[in-house]
Design a protein that fits this description.
This protein is α/β, with parallel strands linked by helices. It has ten helices and six strands; from the N terminus they run E-H-H-H-E-H-E-H-H-E-H-H-E-H-E-H. Strands 4-3-5-6 form a four-stranded parallel beta sheet, sandwiched between helices. It has a two-stranded parallel sheet with strand order 1-2.
Length: 180
C-alpha cells in the first residue's frame, strides 16, 4: 500500500494518530506507525496533478474554510487552495479568519449549541463579506454545519467539498454540458 487517502479531515486526522495511540503496544505500534505515515488528505494528492488543459471552466466565486482537523491537526492549508486555484474560470477569494472554527467540531454543535451557533454566525458573516457562490471545506462536519447555516440565513452560497468542484471541472457543472 503506497497511501491511504482520506477525503474527510476528521477521519484523516484520526488515522494519522494511530501510531501515537498505539505507542505502548509493542505488537501493533510498528504497523500503526507505518500506516499513519501513509495517510494523505485527498487535496495533497490532487494538488500535485498536472491537469494539462483537461479541466472545464467553473465560473463561480469560491472561498475556502480551513477545517480544524485539516489546518490545525494535520497542518494542511495550501493544498486545498492549490486544487481550487487550478480550476479554470473559478475566482478564488480568500476567506477572512478562514481557520476559525465553524462550530461543528464533531458533536460540539449538538452538545454546545449556543457556543457552536455563535461560531457559526461569525463564520457566516465572513462568508457574506467574501461574496462567494461556494464555500469549500475539506470536512463533512464543517460542510453540514456551514450548509445548514447558509440555508437558515437565506444566503445563496452553497457548501461543497473541493473535490466536488474538481468533479464539475472534469465532468461539467450540474445543468451544463461539459466541453467536448
Amino acid at each position: 500500500m503506497d497511501a491511504v487517502v482520506a477525503n474527510a479531515a476528521g477521519c484523516g486526522a484520526a488515522m494519522r494518530e494511530h501510531g501515537r495511540l498505539l505507542e505502548e503496544d509493542d505488537a501493533w505500534r510498528p504497523r500503526a506507525e507505518v500506516f499513519s505515515a501513509k495517510v494523505r488528505d485527498v487535496s495533497q494528492v490532487l494538488a500535485g496533478i498536472a491537469w494539462n488543459g483537461r479541466l472545464n471552466a467553473v465560473p463561480l466565486t469560491v472561498t475556502y474554510h480551513d477545517a480544524c482537523h485539516l489546518a490545525h491537526a494535520q497542518q494542511i492549508r495550501q493544498e486545498p487552495r492549490t486544487v481550487l486555484q487550478q480550476i479554470p474560470g473559478l475566482r478564488f477569494v480568500e476567506l477572512a479568519d478562514s481557520d476559525a472554527c465553524c462550530g461543528s467540531a464533531g458533536t460540539y454543535n449538538l452538545l454546545q449549541t449556543e457556543m457552536a451557533g455563535g461560531l457559526l454566525e461569525r463564520k457566516l458573516a465572513r462568508i457574506r463579506d467574501a461574496g462567494a457562490d461556494v464555500v469549500a471545506a475539506g470536512n463533512i462536519g464543517c460542510l453540514l454545519q456551514i450548509g445548514r447555516g447558509l440555508r437558515r440565513a437565506g444566503l445563496p452560497a452553497r457548501a461543497l467539498h473541493p473535490v466536488e468542484l474538481l468533479d464539475w471541472a472534469l465532468h461539467g457543472m450540474p445543468g451544463r454540458e461539459p466541453r467536448a
